[in-house]
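thread from #wetlab-drylab

HS: before we spend reagent money on co-crystallization trials with zinc ion, can we at least see a predicted complex? here's what I'd submit
DV: go for it
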Amino acid sequence: MKKIVLSLFQPVMLAVIVLFWAFAPAPLTHNPWTVIVATSLVTAIVVALEFVSERHVSWRTNGREFATDLFYTILAATVIAELVKKLADEPLASAKHALGISTLWVMHLPFIVQVALMVFLIEFFQYWMHRAMHNSFLWWTHAPHHHITQLNAMKGAVGNPIELFLVTISLVALFDVPESAVFCALTILTLVSSCAHANVRFDPPRWYSYVWTTIESHSKHHSATYEDTRCNYANSLILIDHVFGTFRDGESEIVGQDERKRLSIWQQFTFPLRPLIATIKARQASSASVSG
Ligand SMILES: [Zn+2]
Ligand SMILES: [Zn+2]
C-alpha cells in the first residue's frame, strides 16, 4: 500500500490540482487566498510524508531546520512575492500596455494548454537564471542554497534573498491569461519543487521523472562538489534539461558545498558580500605589511 502511494502520489496530486483549478466554483478560483491555501496545503502534505517514509536518516528534520525552512517559505510568499510584483510584474505589465502588446489568443486556448504554457514560461526563465547562477558571479547569490546540508520539503525556499528574487521573476505578466491558470501553475510548481527537495522515498513512474524534477535529479544537483552541481538546473520541469543536454542521471545523499558547514540565516543573507569583505581584508593586510 505504502509502495503504491509513494509511486502514484506525484502524478495523482498533479491531476487533482489541475481538476481543482479547472472545475472549482469561480468565486473560489478567483480568490487570491485560494492559491495561498492550496500551496500551503500541498506543502504541508509533503512535509507530513517525510514522517511516513523517510529517504535518509541524515536528512531527518529537527526544530532548527524546520524553523529556518518555515521562515524562508513565509519570506518567499510575502516579502519576495511583493517585491517581484512591484519591481518586475507591474513594470512588465505597464510596458506591455504601453507597447500595445496583446495576447488575447491565449484566453481562447483550452485551460490545460494555458496551464502548460504558464508552467513552461516560469520554468524556462528560471532554468536560464539558475544556469547563469552556476556559471557566473551570480553564484555568490545562489551558493547559500547549495550550502544546505540536508534536503527537506520546504528547502526549495531556502537561500539568499537576492537569489530568491531573481528566480521568482517570470514573463507571465506579458500574457493575457485567466488568473486560475496562473494559480494552477503555481500550485503544480509548489508540488513538484517540494517533492524534489523532500526527504521522502518517492518512486514515481519513469515518464513522470522524465518530465518533472524529482528528488533523485535534484539531489544530484545538490552534490557536494561545485562541478557536480552543474546539471539538472530545472526547478520543476526537468524536461528542459533533457532538451538542452544538461541532464545527468543519479542521486546524492551527501549534499552541501565546501566543508559542508551549515550556514545560519545571517550568513545566508550576507553571503554575496564575502568577495567584497575578502578584498577589503586583503587590501588592509597588504597596506599593513607595506607600512610595517
Ligand atoms: Zn543550483
Ligand atoms: Zn534545491
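DV: The CA atoms of residues 60 and 199 lie 7 Å apart.
HS: ok that's useful, forwarding to the group
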